[in-house]
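Lay summary. Proteins are chains of building blocks that fold into shapes, and those shapes determine what they do. In this project we predict the shape from the chain. Here is one chain we studied, written as its sequence of building blocks.
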Amino acid sequence: MRTVFIGAVEGSARALEALCSSGYAPRLVVTLPLDLSHRHSDFADLEPICKAYGLSLHRTSKSEAADTLGHIAELQPDLLLVIGWSQLCGPALRNIPRIGSLGFHPSALPRLRGRGVIPWTIIMGVKETGATLFWLGDGADTGPIASQRRISVNPDCETAASLYEKQITALAEMLPPLVARIAEGDIPADPQDDSLASVCARRRPENARIDWSRPAEEIERLIRAAGPPYPGAFTYADDGTKLVLILAEPHPRENYFIGLPGQVQAVNGNNFTVSCGDSRSIDITAWEGVDKLPRVHTLLGKEQK
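And here is the predicted shape, written in a compact code that computers can read:
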């Protein structure tokens, strides 16, 4: 069975490696030019895997560019695998393969369609999600389901990094058996139940700015949701220094510190404690932005910058 693989992120790399090591290497790999790697905070260059397995590589800024469509069509593929590619695939691309085009989505479809799914999963406090391989169609994330696996989520400590790892591990384990099944002529396609659907709005970097007037639990969850491999939740010190907050935890002594939202209550080395809007505090245990923590008294809320 002839396949073409399209992707550009860490999940793409793990899935491609799993396919190749299982004996289902694609005839062609399509990915982004290196100068467009900034489009994805989790960008992964697929060229080393292609070299290791002797795969043909085609770089393109747009998967529906005329030369890219022509290059794919020349191979007369049976199956297209779109794994970790943020561009919508229109009929000009989807209709090339004989069998169809598979995509991956990090939720239990039809729930949580859309963008920014991993951060939204954590922000919402979801206890269970899923990983889904589905057939691409006209709608975003609406096509029939080919394979799905449930994934447990710990709403009290799950981070974007830990949930991302769960997702790409599931993907790498699910994809080769599914491709093998399709190659044998068994093509699973279970329609989604639209009555159960929900859609996540796109999250932009500015959505991760911390509003210290919000409750401590909500802020701590945002920090976990927006962290690596994403750009991170951020705030500003009172001297204008931007701080990206990577990890935080509730301060162990509830109602110990009395202060205003955003007020820094204690500094312990590179860790510091901040009051939130519900009179509770959180400890910031990992942060980025400058080499040394500035002398900081208050972290600025949204309305102050």
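What the prediction tells us: The two ends are 56 Å apart (CA to CA).
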